[in-house]
Amino acid sequence: MTELLTAAQMRALEMAAIESGDVTGLELMERAGQGVVEAIFEEWPELMGRGTSPSRSPGYLEPDEKDPLRAVVLCGPGNNGGDGFVVARLLKERGWDVEVYLYGDAEKLPPDARVNFERWGKLGAICVPCEDGGFKYPIAGIVVDALFGTGLTRPISLGEGLFVDFNLLGDPGMSGGTKVVALDLPSGLCSDSGKTVGPALFADLTVSFHAQKLGCELGNGPERCGKTVVKDIGLERFGVIDHPHHSGSKTVGVTAHPWRGAVGKKRGSHKYANGHALVLSGGHGNTGAARLAARGALRIGAGLVTLGSPRSAMLENACNLTAVMLRQIDGALGLTELLEDARFNAICLGPGLGIRADTQAMVLTVLKENRPTILDADALTRFSAKPEVLFDVLHEDCVITPHGGEFARLFPDIAERLDAPATVGPAYSKVDATREAAKRAGCVVLFKGPDTVIAGPDGRCSINSAQYERAAPWLATAGAGDVLAGFIAGLMARGFAPMQAAETAAWLHVECARKFGPGLIAEDLAEQLPAVFRDLGL
Ligand SMILES: NC(=O)C1=CN([C@@H]2O[C@H](COP(=O)(O)OP(=O)(O)OC[C@H]3O[C@@H](n4cnc5c(N)ncnc54)[C@H](O)[C@@H]3O)[C@@H](O)[C@H]2O)[C@@H](O)CC1
Ligand SMILES: Nc1ncnc2c1ncn2[C@@H]1O[C@H](COP(=O)(O)OP(=O)(O)O)[C@@H](O)[C@H]1O
Ligand SMILES: [K+]
């Protein structure tokens, strides 16, 4: 689990470090600038060692052998701008041709930024942006975005020319291969929500200090950040404010190999020791979703999986099942009878279940049992008219897995707040929304998407990111969510706690999609689990 921080948490860390006497703000700023220069050379090693005149131009610049490398550094009015002055100085010291623009009043710079403004002043000039905010768009090796970082509170209004020039940079024909490096965050991106607060810049590389900010993983973050790297600035000792897996934790983590140790089966265990998952099927013609979930539950290691089917769909299900067992269930009454068998220790309902009157009765019957339960799709939609009926009976051993539409049906007020365009920073985020929903529902909520957010009613929260190098756009295919529900059910049958099951399943789900790659359909997902498990060394 890698921690992600909000702007407020980052500021608290910085304050704690400075107050401890370990480090000064100026030192942190210097390390931030050094980290950026390091990251530039790591990302584009061809720039290393160039720049000291006379130098060769990089391949993507005009083929003038005498041109030194060029950087345009755009500095804003706060400490993000201060970091920019450090980068400008360090590149200049390497022989680069550096132009620095200040967007703001030098007299009002905060103290550390002011010191670095003056240090830069000994090496070069400060350029004044054009009247329209543009920076004259020179062909440059690197454009450094040091306008705003975690301090963004409102839309950037530095002139339209700024964004016009950036649009030109986005056009490969015009940019001459210029790369944009954002310091901490691309300017205009909200650190906490990943929403754009008004117009925002696009970066090729975003260098975050100490830890990634939440906004890099949520919402528009990934498309704006390009690639992200994190550079230490000496705050490691102050790094853990609270742990993502502690109850009530305020910190959010990105899951990485979550609970790996628990995924393998214990040697010598028999099938009943691995639990018995029950998945409920829809009626005739609506059975595929539940079978996808059932197969997912079996592949992820539930000892036994039974599909509970209405009479109308028995034949259809029987023709399509082998290792998954089949039982006829006639309505909520039949379900009550089946659940007299206490060995069904995890129940999955919703995929393909339909939204008839009986669906509500089935959900209520299952929830009365207080067994580990995962509700998805129709089991959620059925309660759109009166979500509180569902919230009243959900309990701590439940996981609900809404996609955006289902989330809006159950939590319309929260969804409205989340979907509203951000006008101030930090803005309300998917993390805030999922935490609020989990608290209201009284169970774990897994809010799907490339930035899947998983929150518990106690405030624990993590993001399962299928972005950057973990991008898995092939998961946007019918039935992928049904398989995820089955994965969660299978893990809960094996004894995983709801939060642990949701995080592990979501992580494995993305791994399966990545393993298969383009062309993936939902049927392929569970079939990748053996290879994914092998890669984990299980
Ligand atoms: N917190 C830390 O530990 C460190 C922070 N550093 C840098 O400091 C940055 C945060 O600095 P600041 O808090 O000064 O904030 P920023 O530099 O991000 O923003 C500057 C100030 O501009 C004002 N502002 C906000 N939105 C505006 C807008 N749209 N138009 C005009 N003015 C606006 C705000 O008052 C804000 O404080 C970080 O992103 C990072 O780059 C680094 O120096 C290293 C250490
Ligand atoms: N672009 C994407 N990148 C990564 N994961 C995605 C993307 N789109 C959807 N997913 C994931 O795929 C699954 C789709 O689930 P869902 O919307 O319920 O579909 P269905 O109901 O058809 O099964 C979710 O786990 C979601 O997080
Ligand atoms: K920035």
From TrEMBL:
Protein name (database record): Bifunctional NAD(P)H-hydrate repair enzyme
Known catalytic reactions: (6S)-NADPHX + ADP = AMP + phosphate + NADPH + H(+); (6S)-NADHX + ADP = AMP + phosphate + NADH + H(+); (6R)-NADHX = (6S)-NADHX; (6R)-NADPHX = (6S)-NADPHX
Subunit record text: Homotetramer.
Comment on bound cofactor: Binds 1 potassium ion per subunit.
Swiss-Prot/TrEMBL keywords: ATP-binding, Isomerase, Lyase, Metal-binding, Multifunctional enzyme, NAD, NADP, Nucleotide-binding, Potassium
Positions annotated to bind AMP: K448, G449, P450, D451, T452, G481
InterPro entries assigned: Carbohydrate_kinase_pred_CS, CARKD, Nnr, Ribokinase-like, YjeF_N_dom, YjeF_N_dom_sf
Annotated Pfam families: Carb_kinase (PF01256), YjeF_N (PF03853)
